[in-house]
Amino acid sequence: xxxxAIETSCDETAAAIVEDGVKIITNVVASSHLTHRKYGGxxxxxxxxxQVEYMPIILKEALEGHTKDxxxxxxxxxxxxxxxxxxxxxxxxKTLAFAWNKPIIPVNHVLAHIYANFIKxxxxxxxxxxxxxxxxxxxxxxxxxxxxxxWLGGTxxxxxxxxxxxxxRLLGFENRGGIAIQxxxxxxxxxxxxxxxxxxxxxxxxxxxxxxxxxxKTAVMREWNKFxxxxxxxxQELISVFAHEIQEAITDVLVSKTIKAAEKYxxxxxxxxxxxxxxxxxxxxxxVHSKQFTVVAPPTELCxxxxxxxxxxxxxxxxxxxxxxxxxxxxxSVEIIDALPQVK
Length: 344
Ligand code: KG4
Ligand code: ZN
What we know:
It is a single chain. With 344 residues, the chain is of the alpha/beta class. Helices cover 41% and strands 18% of the residues. The chain has helices spanning 33-36, 44-63, 83-100, 109-115, 117-120, 160-170, 177-185, 214-224, 229-234, 236-264, 280-287, 300-303, 308-317, and strands spanning 2-7, 12-19, 23-31, 73-79, 104-108, 128-133, 138-143, 149-154, 269-273, 294-296. Strand 1 and strand 2 (12-19) form a beta hairpin. The longest helix has 29 residues, at 236-264. It is globular and about 65 Å long. The chain starts with a strand and ends in a 27-residue tail after the last helix. The relative contact order is 0.19. Bound molecules: 5'-O-[(R)-(carboxyoxy)(hydroxy)phosphoryl]adenosine (KG4) and zinc ion (ZN). Zinc ion binds at residues 109, 113, 134, 274, 305.
């Protein structure tokens, strides 16, 4: 079955054709992130307008060499996300489904991140623990099989990606904070710096599977303000000391909670996903546990927002319905998944 998938939940405009949930035929992504740089964060209205501008181009490229007869169903992210950008994807998908007389499959963006793993790894053993770490979400799930997900916990405030992005801004990096912190942290050599900074590991010893990253930003600010403006803006060594400790604090908590869940539920596999799962340090820390659990993560281009993951979710877990039943749901829950009627 070939699915055409569309993703527009935030600042990426993406379309892909994927066969049987595992074979990527086309996968095209455009991003408006550079446009938002001067504002210090994503501006929803600007993101929505860019979605309108990019959608025809991306769709044309993804469909290159294909006709409507090659497509069996249309999958689309219907939430959670920004209402303006979501509407562009949802209305595009509905129009195509109507014009081509195809079923439509609504997809939960956060859960779809997990399914990027099934594109490249065909034999994942269950039970599995899935960690979704993106710009807007930090969620842990227990998967008993490819369809059955149970939400175990999530962030009480900021997501891990948000913590990377907000602290990166404090250190003087513009957007794409996670990558900037990773790069700066890689320049840090243990024991070689005169600077030292210690940050908290929020909820590390807490019994639940919840996370909290908002306090980290305050802690970074407190430590950072101990240095003068000159040092903050020019001392690369100081910046890399902070970047290293921020990355250590975030990854320590993510790894510890995930391993705790994997041990509790006797998981065989751990599935990482979402933009933050591209982080090299995070992967390195998980690989320490690879004797106990099979740890998998998508290739970098499938960690961040893309439509191939939307198609994979639609294939393995989606419910076909009629285009009339779909609407954008910016607050779609990641804890309870709406059941949709089967198409007749
Ligand atoms: O999944 P994603 O593309 O979009 C959302 O659904 O939010 O994730 C974006 C997040 C951003 O916060 C970005 O800073 C973070 O993923 N990110 C990283 C890395 N690459 C992207 N964080 C840490 N290390 C990375 N290498
Ligand atoms: Zn995402």
